[in-house]
User: What shape does this take?
Amino acid sequence: MSFISLFITFFNIGLFTIGGGLASLPLLYEAVVDGGMISRNLFVDMLAISQSTPGPIGINMATFAGYQIAGIPGGFVATLGMVAPSLIIIVLIAAWFTNFSSHPLVQDVMGGIRPAALGLIASAAWFIFREALFIPGADMHFSLPAAGLFIALAAAYKLKPATPVVYILAGGVLGIVLF
Assistant: This one.
């Protein structure tokens, strides 16, 4: 894959990701897994790493995917492609939005974007749920240890809220022990 096509692929993902990094996951999955650039298992590993590293998940995923596809330059190009649409749109909005924010057409467009973003985020949540609690394969068996770990960490957080880092580290340690 050329750097230009890598840039265009991630530019398109960045252009149509509305609603935050989680909303980019279905688009990223379609581009890099369905597109044959990386495996499904690597995508799940990228997701786990991107969730636990600082920064927006979509940008982390783009950087990691680009790196896997074309090394360090690929990571840079994919990241640049992912953030370029947001930068362009933010500059345009900053220049003109205050003048048009109350216009009925702008209000209608925003009203349509919100449910679309919610749908993308729900799709990402379902993907994460399915990958975390089911053993991949033809028949997708439910993983009781994974479900137990999820319930235990959720209950621990509810009883004693702490920084997410504590629960990420605890999940990692328990994952090593249980899996």
